[in-house]
Amino acid sequence: MAQFLATLLPDAKRLHLQLGPIDLIIGAQGLQADIDAAYGQARQAFDGLLEQLVSELAVLKSPVSKHNLKTTGPVANRMVEAANHFKGQFVTPMAAVAGAVADYILASMTAGRSLEKAYVNNGGDIALYLSGGAQHRVGIVADVHNPKINMTTTITYDHPVRGVASSGWRGRSHSLGIADAVTVLACSAAQADVAATLIANAVDPGPCAQVTREPAQDLSPDSDLAELLVTVNVTNLSNDQIERALARGQHLALDYVERGLIAGVALSLSGRVVSVGEVLTQAKTISPEFINLASKEAVHAPS
Predict the structure, then answer these.
(1) Domain count, the chain
(2) What are residue 22's DSSP bridge partners?
(3) Which of 38, 119, 137, 170 makes an SS bond possible with 109, Cβ 3.0 to 4.6 Å?
């Protein structure tokens, strides 16, 4: 079994777990004994997680619309459950993988612990835990090349949001659309992850010379998107193309909000940032605990 990295970061407050493509930053607030126990539970849950996912990879790369997918692992089960909420579209459980890992580790580390709050940040897909009276502050950066906070939100115990996830054509995963960033707030990180992927896919001006696409399998032979065309370059979009692409993403996002699948979403393209839902607000002078970057990378800012 492969060995994973498990170490406290230099601030001695946050835990770093890493193995292969899974790279987690974990934080918690509460009594030190509970924090130490929670971190121990996170390490234990992380051990063997990647091997479990690999063992079910063939199933997890199958479209949920065509199959009644059966999985056994706790993360795989979360992936299938999240994807099934969106099964009217082409989607595989792989769209939920980063968020589902964050959700599982968070559930494992908080079980039996009396924490004020906690989070698991998996490359920008974040699972949140809150006790009564606690809150998390999130800052959203729409363009990693222009790293300023564009929007903010404060998530409280009474609000149903417990997950934040982002997607975009320049992120870690391939996208069918051209969004620089789509950041979603939902009841879980896994569900936010799927929604962000699908809304980002929908941000599309249609066939045009300004967008270059290639089959996903030519870029990543093992991609669950197979022969579908994914975006590899975007140049010099007109205002009409930007508006048309964002409108398509907004239309799908509004459907998800109205169906209760997500709470809110911010969409970014070529310097334009729009939102759907009532959770996200224009940036104010605050110090966010989390800065969610368009590229699905993320840093944690001190509160």
Answers:
(1) 1
(2) 19
(3) 38
